[in-house]
Records
---
Amino acid sequence: MSKELIRLKDVTMKFDGETVLDNVNIYFNDKEFLTLLGPSGCGKTTLLRIIGGFQTPTEGDVFFDGVRINDVPPHKRQVNTVFQKYALFPHLNVYDNVAFGLRIPKEAEGGTDKSGKREKVRLSREEIDSRVREMLEVVSLKGFEHRSISSLSGGQQQRVAIARALVNRPKVLLLDEPLGALDMRLRKDMQQELKRIQQRLGITFINVTHDQEEALAMSDTVVVINEGVIQQIGTPEDIYNEPKNAFVADFIGESNIVDGIMREDKVVEIFNRRFACLDSGFAKDEPVDVVIRPEDVDIVSESEGQLRGVVTSVTFKGVHYDTIVDFYGFKWLIQTTDYCPVDSHIGIRIDPDGIHVMKKSRYSGMFGDYSSYSEEYDEINDPTLLDVEEAEGRDNEE
């Protein structure tokens, strides 16, 4: 079982009377790769700075290994930070950038000098050299010791910054949007590199990003934040497949979010048509939000569809088509390898595990293409599961 390393208890942060973090309670485990994910201004960087000691919370407490550290300055915490702007010294080469912090005398754990101050100790030249070369090997920069910083690529500069932060052997590495300055290809490469480094060293990484793909690719745990409030904590799979509310569903990946009614356990009604699902525990006839991911929708012929619509837009994405389908005024995104031309009439089918039901929240109606039941669907007065042929016959008679 993972050991708890950091805990924030009832943490609130205000700037000029404005609440940036609102009563945050969260803990971080040892040897975990955790990502704080949310839109710009949601409070994730402020949370990171509180952990690092750069800011003191207005209310609440921060604990490290069970000890309250609110008043402990950054340089005395077992935490180091890599910022988006790496702040490398351009006049120093790679080796000297990494060695810089090791050459600063540190207060000894034990006795004091004659004036009562803690004695300061220096690492030997041999110890510094050993640790610098070890860390450069960890970040795959062995042989780059004498390179100038200006000669390095963006990814190499980032690795130097990581090596400089890790050479002091912290228990936690904080990463503030570390991949934001890199191009897409390099960013994907560095996602794997950061995960490899974290697993090799076996220390806690806490990463801040607004990039959902980055969070899902690297993390053991994802914390979704909005407006200073934690919306959901879970594994990448849980966050994506089981979002807690419409904000999380919309922010993590593409989502079709529609109004529904939970008629009974494992049966939800959308557009006056009942669908089998895997969700239970809701009240009978409770209004709910329903999330259907674009990749979980199968396009079929009209006669085989649970719902029928008209294609309004098709965009080729390489491995699939982004197909927009209008269901009587309500537009869905469907990601499919099947090409359906604009204005074609199609049906769709959704398996029970492709439907996720959520409680209504303050975010209901803010995301997705919410719409009221149309007259066409109101005509279907027998909303039984998959009963399409009867409805079509009735439509033809009319």
Note: The chain has two domains: 4-241, 257-397.
---
Amino acid sequence: MMTPALFSVCVLAALLELDTTYAFQLTFSRGIIAAPIFSLLTGDIMAGIQVGVFTELLFIDVNPLGGVLPPSAVICSATTLALHMLGAELYLAFIFGVLFSLVFAQIEKYRRRSRFRWMIYWEQKIVQKPTSVNRAIMISLFSSFAINFLLLFAFVWAVSPVILWIAAHMPERAQIACKLAYMAVPWIGLAALIPEFRLKTR
């Protein structure tokens, strides 16, 4: 179901996703910052704060170094809060948010590899006409923004009825298991931080 709030979340998420590597890099793409911003649009501030903390802790030990492309905290947060806004339980929405952030990371790897030919084309253009560098940058940013928006919106639109059906037919034990898994997320994140603190105290 298309709503102004859903459209706004997808637009803002597509923009904040550029903050990861493409532009700005003002740390707005961190889960602890992005999720509360999204919750201002969805109307559930407490859910945004909780998702932001959980996302931050879950992805805290994955760094974008070398060929490693971590799951997107922006995509995870936006997907979770958008699905929650459309009626999904927060714990189920978060599970789907994490899954889509993992899928999105793989899509992003493919996009970066396929962009190589694009860069060669623009390199030749810039050599011939140096002023075309600004045009190349703007086209690259806009295309990344548009693809991010379409991927996020399509996933939320397709999954929202599925997740509601799953919630209605899920056995009680499975619901309890999913809730416990959701509540275990911050403990997993804190456990990942223990070695970091131990190394710093030596």
Note: The CA atoms of residues 54 and 185 lie 6 Å apart.
